[in-house]
Amino acid sequence: ELTMGKSTQPLLKRCKSLGINPVVMGYTKESKRNQKEVRRKKSEYGLQLDEKQKVRFIYGVMEKQFHKYYVMATKRDGITGEMLLQILESRLDNVVYRLGFAKTRKQARQMVNHGHINVNGAKVDIPSCLVKVGDVITVKEGSGIKKLIIANNDVIVPGWLEADKDNFTGKVINLATKSDIDYAVKENLIVEYYSK
Known about the structure:
Elements: E1 2-3, E2 6-7, H1 11-18, H2 44-59, H3 63-74, H4 80-89, H5 92-98, H6 105-113, E3 117-119, E4 122-123, E5 136-139, H7 146-151, E6 161-164, E7 169-172, H8 187-194
Antiparallel strand pairs: 1-2, 3-4, 3-5, 5-7, 6-7
Helix pairs in contact: 2-8, 3-4, 4-8, 5-6
């Protein structure tokens, strides 16, 4: 069900097929339909592919870009799989989501696309822009989305970020590490998938 490389499959169904808790995607409702589990033994390749698709889906990243991140991760000092997760977490749309400025990564992506987000005082409208330690993320003055953000105030901000929700600002204190990841992931399978 791919159109132009984008999945049109309903979100909850996709979460189920990839084994993701919808909460990870910012959704609270779970599907109550067809809860019967069909377990077929997957090949090693199938497991690797699933893991890659799962992580791609969580961050809303196209295959080409995802592969680019993998290549970038292989060049960083550290374990490739963990570096890949770090790069994905460093995406501006993800950071906006993690700071609790958006309910979902998709919403965060739209906020960035529409020019509501500044990085170090300058407008950045590229969701895939990678933040660095010390970067300050702010919601643009006079932005109508502040009302939305107030509704998200119960989000737990990860330790690598610092959020001042009253002033709609956030700061990157560190880059994310594997222990900051809030969903089950076997990133080594993704590395195996690409290193074939």
